[in-house]
Amino acid sequence: MGTTALAATPDKALLWAPRLLAVAVSLFLGVFALDAFGSDTSFVQALPDFLLHLIPAAIVAAVVALAWNREWIGAVLFTALAVAYAVTAREHLSWIATISGPLLVVAALYAWNWIAGRPRVS
């Protein structure tokens, strides 16, 4: 039993890595929405801006949900999100590295799982 459990650990780690990292990226993007409350506006006045700034985090969360059992969707959509962000922020290389970088890592992990044909999450 010991060797079987140890042999399954790397596969489970690779299976869960893109999903957990994608959730972390979504939460990371959500933190940027808190910037809406930084000015001298009241909570009620800042709430629409906060909700607007949460859209990227919600998009990433939606892609995680779509790709949960279909790794190819995660590979394609996370790559598309990384490229789309890089194109829109092309004059800010540090922003591209901060946002598109993790999205590409998630895309690569989904692609790796898809190509390797790992067991699906149930």
Please characterize this protein's 3D structure.
This protein has 122 residues and is mainly α. Helix content is 80%, strand content 0%. α1 (2-32) runs antiparallel to α3 (55-67). The radius of gyration is 17 Å and the shape is elongated. The mean pLDDT is 88.
SSE ordering: HHHHH
Query: How much beta, percentage-wise?
Result: under 5%
- Counting DSSP H or I runs of 4 or more residues, the number of helices is 5
Radius of gyration: 17 Å
Low-confidence stretches: none
The structural class is mainly alpha
Distance between the termini: 23 Å
Secondary structure: number of strands: 0
The helix content is over 70%
Shape designation: elongated
Query: What is the residue-mean pLDDT, rounded to a whole number?
Result: 88
Report the biggest beta sheet as strand number plus sense, adding barrel if it closes.
none
List keywords for this structure.
single chain; 122 residues; mainly alpha; elongated
How do the helices and strands line up, and which of them pair or pack?
Blueprint: H1 2-32, H2 43-53, H3 55-67, H4 71-88, H5 93-116
Helix pairs in contact: 1-3, 1-5, 3-4, 4-5
How would you sum up this structure in a few lines?
Helices cover 80% and strands 0% of the residues. The chain has 122 residues and is mainly alpha-helical. The protein is elongated and about 50 Å long.
